Amino acid sequence: MHDKTVVELSAALGQGDFSSEELTRACLERVAALDGRLNSFITVTQEQALAAARAADTHIAAGEAGPLTGIPFAHKDIFCTRDVRTSCGSRMLDNFIAPYDATVTQQLAAAGAVMIGKTNMDEFAMGSSNETSYYGPVKNPWNTDTVPGGSSGGSAAAVAARLVPVSTGTDTGGSIRQPAALCGITGLKPTYGRVSRYGMIAFASSLDQGGPFARSAEDAALLLGAMAGFDPRDSTSVDRPVDDYRAALNDSLEGLRIGLPKEFFGEGLDARTGAAIEAALQEYEKLGATLTEISLPHVGYSVPVYYVVAPAECSSNLSRYDGVRFGHRAADVKDLQDMYRRSRGEGFGAEVKRRIMIGTYALSAGYYDAYYLKAQQVRRQIREDYLGAIGEVDVIMGPTAPGEAFGLGEKADDPVSMYLSDIYTIAVNLAGLPGMSIPAGFADGLPVGLQLIGNYFDEARLLNVAHRYQQVTDWHRQAPPGFE
After folding, report:
1. Facing residues of 114 across strands?
2. Catalytic annotation present for 353
3. Which end of the chain has a smaller Cβ tally under 10 Å, C or N?
4. Residue among 406, 400, 403, 386 at smallest CA distance from 450
5. Where are the alpha helices (DSSP H) in 71-196?
């Protein structure tokens, strides 16, 4: 069962080939048997999952099933789940049992999907390798000596290793697309405001966006259809209808205009990764698309802009973790100031502290105009570059990451080098556009991801472009050795 897509599993459940309870038990057994090699889960919710699976079987038997009814999935441990620990990969929230469900959690439950657990992640979604987690690093199933990418590395690794067919993630600067690329799966970051952020623990509020991980674009379309929608509890949620993301999957790509940013194909791109991307682009030409070079002149500023804006917002968002109302509280404190200082010092890891300090400095009197305001001005120019390019082409393509997965610990002592691993993804978040990564080959035995970027709320087109490519290639069907 573990080698089937969601579409195949849904059909098999409907035909009675097996029950949701049997499918869920099979996933739980694979997690128990194989996740010791990956560390992709923080919490496994076996009893709740089996109860949800039995309820799904009842709906299936009554003819009340939707396409996700009875399908197991894993939740990134950043989405609040009622009565289940929601840790955000941090010691600060190690003892936090969420008293309510995130909107995405509610919507997936309403769709009949079965949550089997919460996945490991970089602490408070701050990282590009899933090495900053309080619960230890996640390992890439293609080579367990390498990273899976971050911050949603646990969700990506779990899907790549066939522990679950789909999972959720969040993307603040590439945290869905980059791990999808490094783990050889499909990952989609929707338009900002397309998926509710209510109950999704905040890192950088103007950048964070939830989205799906899946093995195929068709499966991602199913999951996004359940996750997306307007939510009055989220002030950044956009009130517009949700598209039928499967309706246009098979549309022809004849005449599709693909823009290739010259800034994405120069210095810094690994030659083997570049060769795989070139081969993928040739496949698109065979499908009827035309390739055009474009320019995004300000995209080179995206990393410094991001590392002013995101830390500034994280400094504000994480100020709530003070040891008073919830989360970690230091023992034997002397006074209130000592409790604040020690609780935050003990509860946060090194990368989170680094970003809080950078953000606090950038927002401080005398530096706000020089750093934060200037970063927001350049952010607008980056957005205008993308909008100008999208006016000339239908889809923008390029590499998702500059190279394949790097070794565990390889960049741990070099934060700037780590930050540059998101160089091709960050600008999409700054602009609020949708983007996705699909498997496009291998470099030295490790997956390579092709990034697709579209216009606002044009997820249906991205999924169509990805799906047609996956109909003529099989990169997305290949499994890591030992996890087949």
Report:
1. 72
2. no
3. C
4. 400
5. 103-110, 153-160, 177-183
Computed over every residue of the chain, the mean pLDDT equals 96
Please write the tens of the pLDDT for every residue from 174-208.
999 999 999 999 999 999 999 999 999 999 999 99
Cα separations in angstroms, 401 against 56, 99, 196:
38, 37, 27
The confidence score (pLDDT) of residue 438 equals 98
Read off the pLDDT of residues 97-132 as tens digits, 9 standing for 90 and up.
999 999 999 999 999 999 999 999 999 999 999 999
How is 343-360 classified by DSSP, letter by letter?
A: HHHHHS-HHHHHHHHHHH
> Among 256, 283, 251, 296, which Cα is nearest to 393's?
256
Catalytic residue among 151, 155, 237, 421: 151
Q: Tell me which residue has tokens 């996640």.
A: 138
The question of whether 128 is a catalytic residue gets the answer no
pLDDT in tens, 254-303: 999 999 999 999 888 999 999 999 999 999 999 999 999 999 999 999 99
Question: What burial letters (b/e) apply to 422-432, b meaning 16+ CB within 10 Å?
Answer: bbbbbbbbbbb
Nearest one of 106, 359, 241, 219 to 98, comparing CA atoms: 106
Helices (H) and strands (E) in the chain, counts: 15, 11
Question: Rounded to whole angstroms, what are the CA distances from 326 to 79, 84, 86, 135, 205?
Answer: 16, 15, 12, 19, 21
Retrieve residue 36's tokens. 């010791």
pTM here is 0.96
Rounded to 5°, the CA angle 479-125-176 comes to 40
Q: Parallel, antiparallel, or unpaired for β 72-76 and 166-170? A: parallel
User: For 166-228, where are the E strands, in sequence order?
Assistant: 166-170, 186-189, 210-214
Cβ neighbours of 461 (radius 10 Å): 19
Annotated catalytic residue, options 40, 87, 152, 175:
175
How far apart, in whole angstroms, are the C-alpha atoms of residue 173 and residue 302?
10
3-state secondary structure of 253: coil
Q: Which residue out of 10, 20, 40, 76 is catalytically annotated?
A: 76
pLDDT digits (tens, 9 = 90+) for 438-482: 999 999 999 999 999 999 999 999 999 999 999 999 999 999 999
The verdict on whether 151 is a catalytic residue reads yes
Residue 188 DSSP code? E
Q: What confidence tens digit (pLDDT) does each residue in 4-30 have?
A: 999 999 999 999 999 999 999 999 999
Q: How far apart are CA 431 and CA 212, in angstroms?
A: 20
Residue with tokens 């470099």: 443
**Residue 327, C-beta contacts closer than 8 angstroms, at least 6 positions apart:** 92, 93, 95, 96, 321, 343, 347
The C-alpha atoms of residue 260 and residue 166 are separated, in whole angstroms, by: 30
What is the distance between the alpha carbons of residues 155 and 79, in angstroms, rounded to a whole number? 12
How far apart CA 21 and CA 6 sit, in angstroms, is: 15
